[in-house]
Write a structure and sequence with these properties.
Elements (H helix, E strand, L loop, with lengths): L1 H13 L2 E6 L4 H6 L2 E3 L1 H10 L4 E5 L2 H10 L4 E3 L15 H10 L4 E5 L4 H5 L3 E3 L4 H6 L7 E4 L2 H11 L4 E2 L12 H10 L3 E5 L9 H4 L4 E3 L2 H10 L4 E5 L4 H8 L4 E4 L14 H10 L8 H17 L1
Parallel strand pairs: 1-2, 1-3, 3-4, 5-6, 5-7, 7-8, 9-10, 9-11, 11-12
Helix pairs in contact: 1-13, 3-4
The structure holds 1,3-dihydroxyacetonephosphate and iron/sulfur cluster.
Length: 306
Amino acid sequence: MEAIIKEINRLKKEKNAIILGHYYARPEVQRVADYLGDSLGLSRVAGETDADIILFCGVEFMAETASIISPDKKVLIPVKGAGCTLAQSITAAGILTWKRKYPDGIVVSYVNTTAEVKAVTDYCVTSANALKIVKQLPEGRPILFTPDKNLGEYIKIATGREMDIWQGECYVHDVITTELVEHFLEKYPDAELLIHPESAACSNRQLLEHPRVIVGSTTKIMNRPSESSYKQFLIATEPDTLAELTRLYPDLDFVPVIPEHRCEYMKLTTLENIHDALLHEQYEVKVPEELREKAIVPIDRMLELS
Ligand code: 13P
Ligand code: SF4
């Protein structure tokens, strides 16, 4: 493993490439990332880097977002077909049908969507800024929140804004139900539970009021232990986040609530295909300019408001 990591680092330097990795990437892949982050953090870095090549260790919609933000960079994804059940759950046609019914409506889409969906969206959001952005939307107009039903319900409860919610889901987080969360809270009475808002339990108002439940994006989950008085944390999100959590906080105890339920799409990226991607400069993700000009609008609005 050390040999391939060395070669990846050499190629990175030679090609002036930057490796961006999501916290759900394989732990060994996280090690070679120049920047490890959540969807919002990675979008920001993609817009600010002066590297010639952005190698994205995540899923396709993330690489596509990087290409929309940084059209002059070569954006690579090491493996083809790294999809996302959420991104697949919505199409531009679905949004346009809603828009025909509500011509003055506002469409808010999670960043986990294709470029075509972003092109017909008014505001993009990530789990880190959805609350802040929805609170700032003009009053008195219909709102459609897409595509995650659990995040949508959570935002609706937390902001009190009336919204239509698309019924998409992340297959990883949707199994984190109220029953599962209650079971862990009971079993670990001295632990705080950190939960990602894509989880099914986040649509349960009562649970959200529990004093030991903290809802947050991946970055908030990463930061929370540094400001909490608890020493043990129940991690209600993708279990490979534990790689970074245990690295950051070696003295604290982390218990994953879905230890075996990983995002299979995120795991498609391996050290071997990262190496090949750098060597052969494959596989390029390029959003056509006409589509990009439309898809950048809701992303720019998001970056301005967050
Ligand atoms: P964030 O990176 O916004 O926390 O979203 C998690 C996720 O499911 C990414 O695919
Ligand atoms: Fe998509 Fe869920 Fe995987 Fe994130 S964790 S890439 S939302 S399937």
